[in-house]
Amino acid sequence: MGAKMAPSFALLYVGFFEKEIIFNNDRNPYLPIINSWKRYTDTIFFWKATESLLKEFHGFINTNSHNLKFTIEYDDHRMNFLDNLAYRDSNRLGSNLYFEKPLTEIQCCMDIHSTPSPLREACLSLK
User: Fold this and answer.
1) Coil, strand or helix: which one is 58?
2) Which of 14, 26, 106, 114 is at 20 to 30 A from 45, Cα to Cα?
3) Phi and psi at residue 88, to the nearest 5°
4) How far is CA 2 from CA 9, 10, 89, in A?
C-alpha cells in the first residue's frame, strides 16, 4: 500500500485542511477576499487582492497545526504551470507551451585516464 497511496492520501489531507481552515468563515478572516480557489495537486490559483494581503494570508495559512507549509509565487502578468506559460496581456488571458532547453551535449567530467576501462570507453564514446 504505502507509496502507491501517498498521492491520494496527500490530496485528501489537503482537502481536509481546506475544509477546516480555508473555507471556514469562523477561522479564515481572508475568506471574503478569495474570489476563486483552484487547486491542482500541489498548485493553487486563487488571489485577486493586494500583494500585502497575499503575504498576510500566506503567513496565516503557514501558522497551522496540520504540519503543512506553503510557498508562494506571484506575478502580475505571467505564471508557469506544468508545461504552460499563462499570461495576461491587457485584459486578455493567454497561454503558450513552456519548453525547457533540451539537453544537446553530454560532458564527461572525470579524469578518463584513472577510471576503469568500461567506464573510460563509455566516456570516450560520448565525445
Assistant:
1) helix
2) 26
3) -120, 125
4) 10, 12, 45
Q: Which residues, other chains included, contact 101 with Cβ-Cβ below 8 Å and sequence gap of 6+?
A: none
d(CA 95, CA 4): 33
- 82: alpha, beta or left, given left = phi > 0 and alpha = psi -120 to 50? left
Residues 6+ apart with CB under 8 A from 42: 10
* Per-residue buried b or exposed e for 23-59, using 16+ beta carbons within 10 Å of the residue's own CB: eeeeebebeebeeeeeeeeeebeebeeeeeebeebee
**Does the pLDDT at position 112 exceed 50?**
no
Interval 2-40: pLDDT, tens: 688 888 888 888 889 989 999 999 999 998 888 778 787
Reading phi first (left if > 0) and then psi (alpha if -120 to 50, else beta), residue 67 is in left
Could you give the 3-state DSSP secondary structure of residue 88?
strand
